[in-house]
Amino acid sequence: MRKTIAAAVGAGLLSAQVLACDLHLGGVDLLEPVASPWPELTLKTTPTVAAKGSDLPAAIEITDPLILAWKQNLTGVKGTSTNVTINATVSTIDADVRTVGYTTSSVYVRATGVPSHTVGPFPGNPATPTDRDRTFRLPRAPAENTGTKTATGLGAIGVMVNGVPFFNPQDAASYNNQNVWHQNANVVEAPSFDTGRGHPAPLMGNVTQGVYHYHQSPALLINQLDAGNTGQHHSPIIGYAFDGFPIYGPYGLSDPNNLNSSIERVESGYTLRNITTRTALADGTDVTDGPAVSGTFPLGYYVEDFGFTGLGDLDIYNGRFTKTPEYPAGTYAYFATLDTNGAFYPYLVGPRYFGVVDPGNIGNGTITVPGDITYFVAPEPGAGMLCGIFLNCGMLCRGRRSH
């Protein structure tokens, strides 16, 4: 049944008018949080960098993966595209993450939203990725939401380690605008995805400018982080949801409680429903009818075509408690889900977050960057002796990463 989705896309059965991604907006402007200015960093002394393994009593040893995971741009790399028009814009924008800082409770990440992997072209989508200069705030001690879980809404629901946000599976449109059968962006808009599996959502009022984002496993980012891995080892962290829990690539432990267990492709707990008509939800709830399953509306066209069975490895939120190389004592973690035909629902995070979400990251939220933030500078690529610099605004302290 999963082949039906890919076949429909490949056969060109999907309407070209939906490829521009304006359906993300649902007729409403795409809101992004506003962040206060980052404190000015003034170095009072010359940075001193510790050699790997050296004993520095004054050093701060950083082991928190939430600080270490980010793909910082230390060499001025710009965005790139094979499309001349798109490249004219992205080649002027610093790629990946601009700045990482932290306090005892939170990590702050500032990014352009343009990745260092190539972007575009985006067939049917006139938008070009632009510099969003966005700040994200993530909790260092994420916790389960023991009350009503928060739905993953439209717009960003988390951020990849290259500073590119990711969205949930929906594209904001529903059948006959009845808010019941919601279109799956990974089917309806898939023809507009680039090879990195991303595309820009146009800004309302200016369809040529957009917010580059992913809806599914970010293929080119994973290739940058973990090229050639088909299950030889555990996938790396590829991002964090807005509840602060990590998202891994598709490969994890066969026994989540045993770091020495074999590696497998982690399976979604959802399956395509065995239906020919759309009259009820997976739990049996009677709803307004949607279109019958057909070549125009194949199974998977709507997110309600999937139902949670629990037959896979992951829960209804698309995560599980597991030990990982970065969290050897264990953590709750989401996974980018694939099947033998490619990305599979719910792709990154399920319909709801597992943990408590920082509302500052969502919609028209606000993020205040504290004046006492400590900046973290990751090692430059290939600099084997460089182990990290930690800079407190106006003050310098030396540090080393754990290896």
Structural summary, described in words:
The structure is a single chain. With 403 residues, this protein is mainly β. It has one domain. Helices cover 8% and strands 26% of the residues. The strands form eight sheets. The chain has a seven-stranded mixed β-sheet. Strands 8-7-13-14-20-19 form a six-stranded mixed β-sheet. A hairpin with an 8-residue loop joins β19 and β20. The longest helix is centred in the first third of the chain and has 9 residues. The radius of gyration is 21 Å and the shape is globular.
Helix fraction by DSSP (H/I, runs of at least 4): under 10%
* Gap from first CA to last CA: 45 Å
Q: How large is the radius of gyration? A: 21 Å
Number of helices: 5
Shape: globular
What's the structural domain tally? 1
- Mean pLDDT equals 86
Largest sheet features: 7 strands, mixed
Strand fraction: 25-35%
> Structural class, please?
mainly beta
Q: Would you report the number of β strands? A: 26
Low-confidence residue ranges: 1-18, 22-28, 43-59, 382-387, 394-403
Fold blueprint:
Blueprint: H1 2-10, E1 34-35, E2 60-62, H2 65-68, H3 84-90, E3 97-102, E4 106-111, E5 128-129, E6 134-139, E7 156-160, E8 165-167, E9 170-174, E10 182-184, H4 185-188, E11 198-203, E12 206-214, H5 219-226, E13 237-241, E14 246-248, E15 251-253, E16 263-265, E17 270-272, E18 306-308, E19 319-322, E20 331-335, E21 338-339, E22 342-343, E23 366-367, E24 374-377, E25 389-392, E26 395-401
Parallel strand pairs: 1-23, 2-26, 5-12, 14-20
Antiparallel strand pairs: 3-4, 3-24, 4-6, 7-8, 7-13, 9-10, 11-12, 13-14, 15-16, 17-18, 19-20, 21-22, 24-25, 25-26
